[in-house]
Please model this.
Amino acid sequence: MRSDWWSHGPQGTPFPWFKWGRFFGPGELRLALLSLLEDGPKHGYELMKRLEERSGGIYHASAGSIYPTLQQLQDEELVISEQSNGKRIYHLTETGIAELDRQKNTVKKIWQRAEHWSEWAPWVPETAIIAKPIAKLFRAARRAVTDAEDTERIVKVREIIDRACREIEALGAEPAES
Model:
């Protein structure tokens, strides 16, 4: 059995969330937004929805990341905006088009990765946010019992994990807070 079985899916293909901690690396969100504007002018919410669609629903853009990035793009004169029907609509500038052309390989990699993430969308529940802490718990437990010569340590690790399971199960039995 593979030692990293918990981070891989069918046929040993790695789950994308273990390879990349975040959907976008540094500077990639700005390039993704520029590339979405290449198809035509859009408002912020439209861009947020397109990012979600391109990731198969795995990436949920927040206004707190989109609007500051759009402001940055305006400051860099890569996009311009105008008010229309109560919404701010963003358009690429010639400088923005040139930036996209200059970064075309990076943009291509971003969307290839997004496509890879979207392949996993049916397998990623809303609880995917806990995958990293679960993996961390598993690694800590594995380190604690690897080469353990005394069964007492193994028993203690199992007790800790069992207690955590009971506490989590008890949370599931409680009514959700509003």
In short: The chain is about 55% helix and 10% strand. Residues 129-173 form one domain. The first helix runs from residue 16 to 19. The helical segments are 16-19, 28-37, 44-54, 63-75, 94-102, 104-120, 131-145, 151-173.
